[in-house]
Amino acid sequence: MNNRQKTMWQCMYMHKWDMSVNHVRNRYWCPLCLTSMVEKMFALGFICLMLVGIAGCSKDEEKPVKINFEKREISKEKATLPEKKFLRIAVGSMITPKEGFAYYQQLLNYIEERLGRPVKFVDRESYVEVNNLLKSGDIDVAFVCGRPYVDGHDEFGMELLVAPQAYGEVEYYSYIIVSKDSSIKSFEDLRGKSFAFCDPLSNSGKAFPMYLLAKIGETPDSYFEKYYHTYAHDKSIKAVAQGIVDGAAVDHLIWEYLNRMNPADTLKTRVIVKSPPFGIPPVVVRPGLAPEIKEKLRHIFLNAHMDEEGGKILEGMMIEKFVPITDKAYESIREMRSWIAGGKPEKAQSK
Predict the structure, then answer these.
(1) What are the pLDDT digits (tens) for 223-282?
(2) Which of 58, 54, 21 is CA-nearest to residue 39?
(3) Residues 166 and 182 in one domain
(4) Domain span at residue 11?
(5) Domain assignment of residue 350, yes or no
(6) Helix/strand/coil (H, E, C) string of the chain?
(7) Are 234 and 258 in contact (CB under 8 A)?
(8) With a threshold of 0.85, does the pTM exceed it?
(9) Per-residue confidence band for 40, with pLDDT thresholds at 50, 70 and 90
(10) pLDDT per residue as tens digits for the range 149-197
């Protein structure tokens, strides 16, 4: 092999890219992982500066992210509680970008206070890990994406609890985005280009573009020159904005959140495809969770918008309120999954 000739590489996180052997020997590696590492270094630097009282630095953004660190130290009593005393909650899917995570932490604190039971946050990087924990009973509650809910419901009986209402809807969309200055006008124009998916189980960030490919008899390997899995919608948006990839599939809720709150990256992108509506990422519980706990949780979520503290948390998340939802709301995801697998004929059309 010519050491200067580009060839395809794949890292442990399934990112794919083209690079010469010489570059690899010189310790260059995955550009998506490098971007993530740089972001983490900026974040660490920001926290360190905060600790010594220096303000004005932010995590790779034009506006500083306001994160509430005051809540709360774990008491000795709580630290020594047996695992079964905790309600274990995972945030597998957020309808805000990573910078909005502080609001999810505040929401978990809010739930703990009103439930009268200690809540333990369980952190996992991928949707499949969260589904596996729900299946095994190692977590009790989770915020999940629509596709993992459908898979979990059909595989092991994952149960819906509530769903957020955002922008007046309990539905969301997939956006196919490209650079604002790109000549790409349609999904067809992305043939032979580079593309970013989100999580392999993401509905908006993976299933919808896979559906578009399936309709024309293509796969990511046959259609794109190279593609990546970023495992975060805001990373996919940034990858397009910075010219790392030509296009990406992202959750419209996260794109819209950033476009309103911190549009540095979204202003460098534009939407070329909007999917049909899908059931919004819900809050779910594991099968077998005690009915009285489910009812208490449901009451807390459904009424959070009606008190001052809960309302402020939801406002920060750009959630109007939580509402009841049924499995029927996710049928379009199920139909799309079947189409991708070569089953049912399509019922959904992209807009």
Answers:
(1) 999 999 999 899 999 999 999 999 999 999 999 989 998 899 999 999 999 999 999 999
(2) 58
(3) no
(4) 6-51
(5) no
(6) CCCCCEEEEECCCCCEEEEEHHHHHCCCCCHHHHHHHHHHHHHHHHHHHHHCCCCCCCCCCCCCCCCCCCCCCCCHHHHCCCHHHCEEEEECCCCCCHHHHHHHHHHHHHHHHHHCCCEEEECCCCHHHHHHHHHHCCCCEEECCHHHHHHHHHHHCCEEEEEEEECCECEECEEEEEECCCCCCCHHHHCCCEEEECCCCCHHHHHHHHHHHHHCCCCHHHHCCEEEECCCHHHHHHHHHCCCCCEEEEEHHHHHHHHHHCCCCHHHEEEEEECCCEECCCEEECCCCCHHHHHHHHHHHHHHHHCHHHHHHHHHCCCCEEECCCHHHHHHHHHHHHHHCCCCCCCCCCC
(7) yes
(8) no
(9) very low
(10) 999 999 999 999 999 999 999 999 999 999 999 999 999 999 999 999 9
Tokens of 28: 């260059």
Residue with tokens 């630095």: 57
**Residue 188 and residue 42 share a domain:** no
